[in-house]
Amino acid sequence: MDIIANYGTTLVLVAALFGFLMAWGIGANDVANAMGTSVGTKSLTIRQAIIIAMIFEFAGAYLAGGEVTATIRNGIIDSNAFVDSPDLLVLGMIASLLAAGAWLILASYFGWPVSTTHSIIGAIVGFAVVSIGPEAVQWSKFGGIVGSWVITPAISGVIAYFMFISVQKLIFNTDDPLNNAKRYVPFYMFLTALVICLVTIKKGLTHVGLHLSDGEGILLSIAISIAVAFAGWIYIRGQKYNPQDDSKMHFANVEKVFGILMVITACAMAFAHGSNDVANAIGPLSAVASIVASGGEISSQAAIAWWILPLGGIGIVIGLATMGEKVMATVGTGITHLTPSRGFAAQLATAATVVIASGTGLPISTTQTLVGAVMGVGLARGIAALNLGVLRNIVVSWIITLPAGAILAIAIFYVLQVCFS
Q1: Is residue 141 pLDDT above 70, yes or no?
Q2: Can you give the pTM of this predicted structure?
Q3: What CA–CA distance (Å, rounded) separates 97 from 181?
Q4: In the structure, what pLDDT confidence band is assigned to residue 68 with cuts at 50, 70 and 90?
Q5: Secondary structure (3-state) at 295
Q6: Which of 79, 103, 107, 252 maximizes the CB count within 10 A of its CB?
Q7: More confident of the two residues 288 and 101
Q8: How many other CB atoms sit within 10 Å of the CB of residue 394?
Q9: Contact 309, 92 (CB under 8 A)
């Protein structure tokens, strides 16, 4: 308690600095891999992807990031264990922010798409074990985290695989791909709009006063999706194509439509991501600010100070703009060759898996979900279409993320204790 009383303002300022660093890492890694498919398929240039992601990520973080946030992300540790020593929780959260942010920036430098959620969880567990003991950790939660390394990529991979196969069979591997595109693309537009609406309602708009029941959300999503499909049908019918064009030109025209769909899906995912994953940076920061402001009282949720959400949003944007290119390249071109239709299948599968996870409580990493979807698209063309060396590096980076965050957090926690003792 003496540490909080004597160094309260300093602790909040240090936490803000490290929270900004964590947000920077989220932008450099998580946001970059979300836009990677759009860049890899050349539907967007890197500059366009950065601008679009900057707009939608910041909008999601600032407009729908929430009025309150859980102080301990995913309930991975028991906050009651720190009631008698809130100073340890404050120092631990600060250490976790720096540890997770440093690991994300290192991973982004090497182009590894890793989980920001797992980074902060590993860091929080690390400091909790050395400060209070193993009993402070909810170890049962770890089963879901480890399982998510396999389950979520598998789900998104299967959805992407069959989505891509359906596009091939219904449109590309036919005698008249253009006319079949006019027939079937509105259906894919319906699916895209439905998933986007469900993602946005489930993850993006609950904090801005839109509290719909599951049934109301589904009905609203279906209504909007039907309208989008009808508008898409009118748009495609109105396009003038030269019937004398060769098959390559027909394919190119069809790919343009899927490119538009993929960009729209990426925008929605960026908004949902900004509203949800900004909590990985602002949750621990809000915890520090709340505990210091209350003189050491720990609550399960903390009101977000007015300056915290903009800090997180700006950090995400700067991280994407300065360091996002390498992770974009890994996801967009490193795993397998992507075209707009393949990228669309991967992006839609990722969004669909997010909806499934939100509805079932399945622990999920957006990064691992997207990588699994891109793998599924690659497997649809045979194992030779995948760059197994890149995939090996990605899986290894997933496995070491938890212990890397924990080890860094432990070292930083001890340093902070010395500095503020």
Answers
A1: yes
A2: 0.85
A3: 48
A4: very low
A5: coil
A6: 103
A7: 101
A8: 24
A9: no
